Structure to design on (128 residues):
């Protein structure tokens, strides 16, 4: 009995986002929120269409074509047949990646006096 092939690595890094979109199917359109985005696809929460359905994702005047790869009750994963390389959705992806790359802020560390305890233990001040 042969073993199943190992899972393939994704071509594009996924980025967590919160982008409200409209998804147009063949017979209807639904509002959803992209929660996971890359150049090759997205996870859309709040919208669900049957697997293998072709749809359009509308965001800020841009239309992105997609194919539903998996679907659950209130979310679905889509693949873009044409990778995102420009437009408002790609710009939102780049902004999200830029924000994720920033290190967490070091608040007040440079303004603190070197001391121990609430009042401080400093030999020069005789505050032990």
């Amino acid at each position: 009995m042969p073993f199943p092939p190992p899972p393939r690595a994704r071509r594009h890094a996924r980025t967590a986002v919160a982008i409200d979109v409209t998804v147009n199917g063949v017979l209807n359109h639904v509002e959803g929120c992209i929660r996971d985005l890359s150049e090759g696809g997205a996870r859309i929460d709040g919208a669900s269409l049957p697997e293998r359905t072709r749809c359009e994702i509308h965001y800020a005047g841009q239309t992105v074509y997609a194919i539903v790869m998996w679907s659950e009750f209130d979310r679905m994963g889509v693949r873009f047949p044409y990778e995102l390389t420009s437009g408002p959705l790609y710009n939102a992806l780049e902004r999200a990646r830029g924000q994720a790359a920033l290190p967490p802020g070091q608040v007040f560390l440079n303004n603190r006096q070197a001391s121990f305890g609430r009042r401080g233990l400093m030999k020069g001040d005789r505050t032990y």
User: Anything to note?
Assistant: The beta strands are 15-24, 29-37, 41-45, 54-59, 62-71, 75-79. The chain is about 10% helix and 35% strand. The mean pLDDT is 84.
